Amino acid sequence: DGGITQSPKYLFRKEGQNVTLSCEQNLNHDAMYWYRQDPGQGLRLIYYSQIVNDFQKGDIAEGYSVSREKKESFPLTVTSAQKNPTAFYLCASTGGAYYGYTFGSGTRLTVV
Amino acid sequence: AQKVTQAQTEISVVEKEDVTLDCVYETRDTTYYLFWYKQPPSGELVFLIRRNSFDEQNEISGRYSWNFQKSTSSFNFTITASQVVDSAVYFCALSEVWNQGGKLIFGQGTELSVKP
Question: Can you list the positions of beta strands (E) in chain A?
Protein backbone atom coordinates (compact mmCIF):
# COMPACT_ATOMS: atom_id res chain seq x y z
CA ASP A 1 0.00 0.00 0.00
CA GLY A 2 1.17 3.51 -0.78
CA GLY A 3 1.72 5.96 2.01
CA ILE A 4 4.09 8.03 4.09
CA THR A 5 6.23 6.55 6.81
CA GLN A 6 7.63 8.67 9.59
CA SER A 7 10.07 7.21 12.03
CA PRO A 8 10.49 6.96 14.87
CA LYS A 9 7.10 7.58 16.46
CA TYR A 10 8.69 8.84 19.69
CA LEU A 11 12.14 10.35 20.01
CA PHE A 12 14.00 11.58 23.05
CA ARG A 13 17.16 13.66 22.82
CA LYS A 14 19.36 15.62 25.15
CA GLU A 15 19.52 19.35 24.80
CA GLY A 16 22.26 20.47 22.43
CA GLN A 17 22.14 17.40 20.20
CA ASN A 18 21.07 17.45 16.60
CA VAL A 19 18.41 14.92 15.67
CA THR A 20 17.09 13.77 12.29
CA LEU A 21 13.48 12.78 11.68
CA SER A 22 12.79 10.44 8.80
CA CYS A 23 10.03 10.81 6.21
CA GLU A 24 9.65 8.37 3.32
CA GLN A 25 6.84 8.16 0.76
CA ASN A 26 6.08 5.64 -1.98
CA LEU A 27 3.29 7.66 -3.59
CA ASN A 28 5.48 9.11 -6.33
CA HIS A 29 4.60 12.61 -5.11
CA ASP A 30 6.81 15.49 -6.14
CA ALA A 31 6.00 17.79 -3.21
CA MET A 32 6.76 17.09 0.43
CA TYR A 33 6.25 19.19 3.57
CA TRP A 34 7.26 19.33 7.22
CA TYR A 35 4.98 20.81 9.87
CA ARG A 36 5.38 21.41 13.55
CA GLN A 37 2.47 21.20 15.97
CA ASP A 38 2.59 22.31 19.60
CA PRO A 39 -0.07 21.25 22.13
CA GLY A 40 -3.37 22.92 21.42
CA GLN A 41 -1.94 24.68 18.39
CA GLY A 42 -2.36 24.50 14.65
CA LEU A 43 0.13 23.38 12.01
CA ARG A 44 3.15 25.53 11.28
CA LEU A 45 5.13 24.99 8.10
CA ILE A 46 8.86 24.40 8.61
CA TYR A 47 10.19 23.50 5.14
CA TYR A 48 8.82 22.20 1.88
CA SER A 49 10.18 20.74 -1.33
CA GLN A 50 8.41 20.68 -4.65
CA ILE A 51 11.10 18.81 -6.54
CA VAL A 52 14.23 16.78 -5.88
CA ASN A 53 17.30 18.82 -4.90
CA ASP A 54 15.22 21.91 -4.17
CA PHE A 55 13.46 23.11 -1.02
CA GLN A 56 12.10 26.32 0.47
CA LYS A 57 11.79 27.71 3.97
CA GLY A 58 8.41 27.82 5.55
CA ASP A 59 7.22 30.07 8.33
CA ILE A 60 9.43 28.71 11.11
CA ALA A 61 12.60 27.36 9.44
CA GLU A 62 15.10 28.72 11.96
CA GLY A 63 16.91 25.92 13.76
CA TYR A 64 15.90 23.29 11.21
CA SER A 65 17.49 21.90 8.06
CA VAL A 66 16.32 19.52 5.32
CA SER A 67 17.59 17.70 2.27
CA ARG A 68 15.83 16.23 -0.76
CA GLU A 69 18.28 13.97 -2.53
CA LYS A 70 15.65 11.43 -3.53
CA LYS A 71 12.03 11.87 -4.50
CA GLU A 72 10.93 9.40 -1.83
CA SER A 73 12.77 10.93 1.10
CA PHE A 74 12.64 14.28 2.90
CA PRO A 75 14.49 14.08 6.24
CA LEU A 76 14.28 16.92 8.76
CA THR A 77 17.15 17.75 11.08
CA VAL A 78 16.38 19.59 14.28
CA THR A 79 19.58 21.37 15.19
CA SER A 80 20.85 22.58 18.53
CA ALA A 81 20.01 26.11 17.34
CA GLN A 82 16.29 25.38 17.65
CA LYS A 83 15.33 27.03 20.94
CA ASN A 84 12.33 24.92 21.80
CA PRO A 85 12.37 21.71 19.78
CA THR A 86 9.94 19.63 21.85
CA ALA A 87 6.88 19.22 19.62
CA PHE A 88 4.93 16.91 17.34
CA TYR A 89 6.32 16.82 13.79
CA LEU A 90 4.21 15.88 10.79
CA CYS A 91 5.40 15.09 7.29
CA ALA A 92 3.07 15.30 4.29
CA SER A 93 3.20 14.89 0.54
CA THR A 94 0.95 15.77 -2.36
CA GLY A 95 0.55 15.01 -6.04
CA GLY A 96 -0.94 18.45 -6.72
CA ALA A 97 -3.60 20.97 -5.70
CA TYR A 98 -6.50 18.60 -6.42
CA TYR A 99 -5.29 15.87 -4.11
CA GLY A 100 -4.58 17.65 -0.87
CA TYR A 101 -2.07 16.08 1.45
CA THR A 102 -1.31 12.59 2.57
CA PHE A 103 0.12 12.74 6.06
CA GLY A 104 2.50 10.54 7.96
CA SER A 105 1.64 9.42 11.48
CA GLY A 106 4.01 11.94 13.04
CA THR A 107 7.05 11.94 15.31
CA ARG A 108 6.78 13.20 18.86
CA LEU A 109 10.14 14.72 19.80
CA THR A 110 11.03 15.40 23.41
CA VAL A 111 14.24 17.20 24.27
CA VAL A 112 15.36 16.94 27.86
CA ALA B 1 -3.61 36.87 0.13
CA GLN B 2 -4.86 33.39 0.85
CA LYS B 3 -6.11 32.65 4.33
CA VAL B 4 -8.30 30.17 6.17
CA THR B 5 -10.08 31.12 9.39
CA GLN B 6 -11.63 28.73 11.87
CA ALA B 7 -12.97 31.08 14.48
CA GLN B 8 -14.03 28.35 16.89
CA THR B 9 -10.98 27.22 18.83
CA GLU B 10 -12.83 24.70 21.01
CA ILE B 11 -16.34 23.29 20.99
CA SER B 12 -17.82 21.02 23.61
CA VAL B 13 -21.09 19.17 23.07
CA VAL B 14 -22.95 16.30 24.64
CA GLU B 15 -23.35 13.11 22.67
CA LYS B 16 -26.21 13.13 20.13
CA GLU B 17 -26.13 16.89 19.74
CA ASP B 18 -25.58 18.33 16.27
CA VAL B 19 -22.53 20.54 15.86
CA THR B 20 -21.29 22.81 13.09
CA LEU B 21 -17.65 23.74 12.58
CA ASP B 22 -17.15 26.98 10.71
CA CYS B 23 -14.55 27.67 8.03
CA VAL B 24 -14.09 30.94 6.14
CA TYR B 25 -11.47 31.34 3.45
CA GLU B 26 -9.86 34.08 1.36
CA THR B 27 -8.35 33.61 -2.07
CA ARG B 28 -7.81 35.58 -5.24
CA ASP B 29 -7.80 32.46 -7.36
CA THR B 30 -10.95 31.43 -9.21
CA THR B 31 -10.00 27.76 -9.18
CA TYR B 32 -9.23 26.25 -5.83
CA TYR B 33 -9.95 23.29 -3.61
CA LEU B 34 -11.19 23.13 -0.05
CA PHE B 35 -10.54 20.29 2.36
CA TRP B 36 -11.44 19.08 5.81
CA TYR B 37 -9.11 16.87 7.85
CA LYS B 38 -9.67 15.14 11.17
CA GLN B 39 -6.87 14.74 13.70
CA PRO B 40 -7.80 12.20 16.39
CA PRO B 41 -5.75 11.95 19.59
CA SER B 42 -3.34 9.56 17.85
CA GLY B 43 -2.08 12.55 15.85
CA GLU B 44 -2.29 11.53 12.21
CA LEU B 45 -4.43 13.77 10.03
CA VAL B 46 -7.14 11.95 8.14
CA PHE B 47 -8.70 13.29 4.93
CA LEU B 48 -12.47 13.79 5.15
CA ILE B 49 -13.56 15.67 2.04
CA ARG B 50 -12.45 17.74 -0.94
CA ARG B 51 -14.54 20.37 -2.74
CA ASN B 52 -13.58 22.28 -5.87
CA SER B 53 -14.52 25.89 -6.37
CA PHE B 54 -16.95 25.13 -9.20
CA ASP B 55 -19.04 22.64 -7.29
CA GLU B 56 -21.29 24.25 -4.68
CA GLN B 57 -23.41 21.19 -4.10
CA ASN B 58 -23.65 20.26 -0.49
CA GLU B 59 -22.39 16.84 0.41
CA ILE B 60 -23.58 14.32 2.94
CA SER B 61 -21.69 11.27 4.11
CA GLY B 62 -23.44 9.44 6.88
CA ARG B 63 -23.58 11.76 9.90
CA TYR B 64 -21.24 14.26 8.22
CA SER B 65 -22.36 17.03 5.89
CA TRP B 66 -20.62 19.98 4.31
CA ASN B 67 -22.07 23.30 3.19
CA PHE B 68 -20.03 25.22 0.62
CA GLN B 69 -21.11 28.79 -0.15
CA LYS B 70 -18.92 30.85 -2.47
CA SER B 71 -20.98 33.97 -1.81
CA THR B 72 -19.83 33.99 1.80
CA SER B 73 -16.49 32.18 1.22
CA SER B 74 -17.48 29.52 3.70
CA PHE B 75 -17.13 25.76 3.86
CA ASN B 76 -18.83 24.62 7.04
CA PHE B 77 -18.88 21.10 8.43
CA THR B 78 -21.80 19.66 10.38
CA ILE B 79 -21.82 16.49 12.44
CA THR B 80 -25.30 15.20 13.15
CA ALA B 81 -25.97 13.19 16.29
CA SER B 82 -22.38 13.52 17.48
CA GLN B 83 -20.60 10.61 19.10
CA VAL B 84 -17.65 10.38 21.47
CA VAL B 85 -15.52 9.02 18.62
CA ASP B 86 -15.97 12.35 16.84
CA SER B 87 -13.78 14.00 19.47
CA ALA B 88 -10.78 15.33 17.57
CA VAL B 89 -9.22 18.43 16.12
CA TYR B 90 -10.67 19.35 12.74
CA PHE B 91 -8.76 21.39 10.19
CA CYS B 92 -10.11 23.21 7.18
CA ALA B 93 -7.63 23.86 4.35
CA LEU B 94 -7.37 25.60 0.97
CA SER B 95 -5.23 24.83 -2.07
CA GLU B 96 -5.02 27.12 -5.07
CA VAL B 97 -4.45 25.71 -8.53
CA TRP B 98 -1.87 28.36 -9.37
CA ASN B 99 0.16 27.42 -6.32
CA GLN B 100 2.73 24.95 -7.61
CA GLY B 101 3.02 21.80 -5.65
CA GLY B 102 -0.43 22.05 -4.11
CA LYS B 103 0.63 23.65 -0.84
CA LEU B 104 -2.27 23.74 1.59
CA ILE B 105 -3.21 26.75 3.66
CA PHE B 106 -4.62 25.51 6.97
CA GLY B 107 -6.95 27.08 9.45
CA GLN B 108 -5.97 27.00 13.09
CA GLY B 109 -8.15 24.00 13.79
CA THR B 110 -11.23 23.45 15.96
CA GLU B 111 -10.98 21.07 18.86
CA LEU B 112 -14.24 19.20 19.25
CA SER B 113 -14.99 17.43 22.49
CA VAL B 114 -18.03 15.17 22.58
CA LYS B 115 -18.99 14.13 26.09
CA PRO B 116 -21.07 11.05 26.86
Answer: 4-7, 10-13, 19-25, 31-37, 43-51, 54-57, 64-66, 76-78, 87-94, 102-103, 107-111
